[in-house]
Automatic annotation (TrEMBL):
Cell wall formation. This is D-alanine--D-alanine ligase. Pfam families: Dala_Dala_lig_C (PF07478), Dala_Dala_lig_N (PF01820). The gene is ddl. InterPro entries: ATP-grasp, ATP_grasp_subdomain_1, D-Ala_lig_Van_CS, D_ala_D_ala, Dala_Dala_lig_C, Dala_Dala_lig_N, PreATP-grasp_dom_sf. The keyword Ligase applies. It is found in: Cytoplasm. It comes from Duganella aceris.
């Protein structure tokens, strides 16, 4: 691992690591942020934790950070709202700007944009209290997936195997979100593609395959057990691997993502066709997280990854 020289570390100035927050993913964010904080400090960077769930924007302004690393997940951290505040405060930040953060957090808008760009994503329906669930089930087929479109970390997601389970699944998602997304269930292997860079410089890291117990890659298995197996680089034919990386980068660029992110992909078993699932503009950085795993497969340590992401901190709105 390459340690930063003191002048290089000093060039970052005073750095805030924004963590915690107010979303349903607060606990995961605390783990991500603590890891990032320790990594940056180990490189001699003057980094400080700042919990946006406990402290105000006025306090954030008072800290006089030269730049911040966003280690927040979910609403009020990953959805564009904080990014807008940082633009107003003039504090350069990591990751995507206001619009791509907001769009990527909304799985419905993400799908609309991907489909308009000719990118493959599972068929879906948007549900509300008046929706005919039987008709939706007939249209999408069973099993299907029901999820709140503005949550992450598989929170509120239910697999519906029989029509009688649909209403309960809808209620779980509706308790977390104003709208509900029903999605065709794609049977096959699950992958994720980490991406670094912006625009033409965006590049995919080695693909990670996720093999969860009974295919259940839920919140508990993601962060709190060692039952999930990961293969990185994923074992795939070269042409398929290249195609998966290509559409993931195109999906990232289509949303206007910047700095770093992650795109989740399903590979349909029956014809080996990849389908885009969602984009994450502030992915996990815990010991179980996938972006650090992909970076490690390319020879980049966790500390080097954190510094590389921090280098890209910027204000996105020109004015």
């Amino acid at each position: 691992m390459n340690h930063l020289t003191p002048p290089d570390a000093k060039a970052f100035g005073k750095v805030g690591v924004l963590l915690g927050g107010r979303s349903a993913e607060r606990d995961v964010s605390l783990m991500s942020g603590t890891g990032v904080l320790q990594a940056l400090q180990s490189q001699g960077i003057d980094a400080h934790a700042f919990d946006t769930g406990l402290r105000s924007l006025a306090e954030l302004a008072d800290e006089k950070f030269d730049r911040v690393f966003i280690a927040l997940h979910g609403r009020f951290g990953e959805d564009g709202s904080l990014q807008g505040a940082l633009e107003l405060l003039g504090i350069p930040y990591t990751g995507s700007g206001v619009m791509p953060s907001s769009v990527a957090m909304d799985k419905i808008t993400t799908k609309i944009l991907w489909l308009a760009a000719g990118l493959p994503t599972p068929n879906y329906a948007v549900l509300d209290a008046q929706s005919d669930l039987a008709q939706v089930a007939a249209g999408l087929g069973l099993p299907l997936i029901v999820k709140p479109p503005h949550e992450g970390s598989t929170i509120g997601i239910t697999k519906v195997n029989a029509a009688g389970e649909f209403k309960a699944a809808y209620d779980i998602a509706a308790a977390l979100d104003d709208s509900v997304l029903a999605e065709e269930f794609v049977t096959g292997r699950e992958f994720t593609v980490a991406i670094l860079g912006t625009g033409a410089t965006a590049r995919a890291l080695p693909i990670v395959e996720i093999v969860a117990p009974q295919g259940n890659y839920d919140y508990q298995n993601k962060y709190f057990t060692d039952d999930v197996k990961y293969h990185c680089p994923a074992v795939l034919p070269d042409a398929l691997s290249e195609e998966m990386r290509r559409i993931a980068v195109q999906a990232y660029r289509t949303l206007g993502c910047q700095g770093w992110g992650r795109v989740d992909v399903l590979l349909r078993e029956r014809d080996q066709k990849p389908f885009l699932l969602e984009a994450n503009t502030s992915p996990g950085m815990t010991t179980h997280s996938l972006v650090p795993m992909a970076a490690r497969a390319e020879g980049m340590s966790y500390e080097e990854l954190c510094v590389e992401i921090l280098r890209t901190a910027s204000l996105k709105m020109k004015g």
